[in-house]
Amino acid sequence: MKRDRITTGVWALVFVGIVSGAFAAEPKWVVYEGFDGPGKGKEIVLISGDEEYRSEEALPQLGKILARHHGFKCTVVFSQDPKTGVINPDNSHNIPGLEALKTADLMVIATRFRDLVDDQMVHIDAYVRAGKPIIGMRTATHAFNIPGNKKYASYSFNRKGGFGKQILGDTWLNHHGHHGRQSTRGLIAKGQEKHPILKGIKDGDIWGPTDVYGVRPLAATCKPIVMGQVLKGMKFEDEPLEGKKNNPMMPVSWTNSHKGDDGTVGRVFTTTMGAATDLVVEGSRRMMVNAAYWAVGLEDKIVAKSKVDIVGKFEPTQFGFGKYKRGIMPSAHLLK
Prior knowledge:
- The protein is of the alpha/beta class.
- It has a domain of 225 residues: Rossmann fold (3-Layer(aba) Sandwich).
- The chain contains five helices and ten strands, in the order H-E-E-H-E-E-H-E-H-E-E-E-E-E-H.
- It has a ten-stranded mixed β-sheet with strand order 1-3-2-4-5-10-9-8-6-7.
- A hairpin with a 5-residue loop joins strand 9 and strand 10.
- The termini are far apart.
- The relative contact order is 0.17.
């Protein structure tokens, strides 16, 4: 009997060791080494972490496109359960892997109301203070919600607009289009037809089922390049809504710049589009790829019809709170 208890205990320890070893071997983030392309030698860190628009699905796909078709090395990090490593967009305090920003040439951020621990937030702060290029997607205008007694509270959306207002150009205002009922068609802003980010894109190529966000008058340093036409419904071919919602239209994409502590000026591109479901449309993907080139100073390498094909299987989940796929580990997004 005593021997049986000892044997059972040994097997229990073995089982725990196997589980612990498997968890330790599981990556907490994914890295896509750049294939051949103009982006070879450049590193991009893509930061997902929102409860609603499935950035945990959008950014791995965008990273795969940038790595496989354009040569960029891409690291994608996720909000996740610190105990299990499972991707959990509802966990607003934990995004491991942000130290990759130390060598990054571009930060792509699509977070919403995050309150990260200081040991993680320090990497974002150092990147921003270095004046390096940034792309903000959808809820990045309200990327952080950090209590006033914490070290990085100035990043919070409700502290003079925080990261959104001070770096991207605006913070959260409202839903301009009817959320979940009226989709967005991108129209090129007057005078921006030749902007490098819009190369190979014409009116109507950019579309997404996400609604147009309300935007305040942007700072003089911001230049709208895509305006958001509110549509009557949720289909690509739907007609534009009549009335004041489209007169005037809200910008849904604009450029800006920000200055680092040493005077270095980094390029900034912001779009209030960018849900995972928006990336099913070629024009929307092309805008994001072109923006990456432009942000790191490779605009002369943008071609009119660069390859932006979906990499692997991509069936994005419809946006909405609580709709994320459960039990998904970062390894599920590895490039195969």
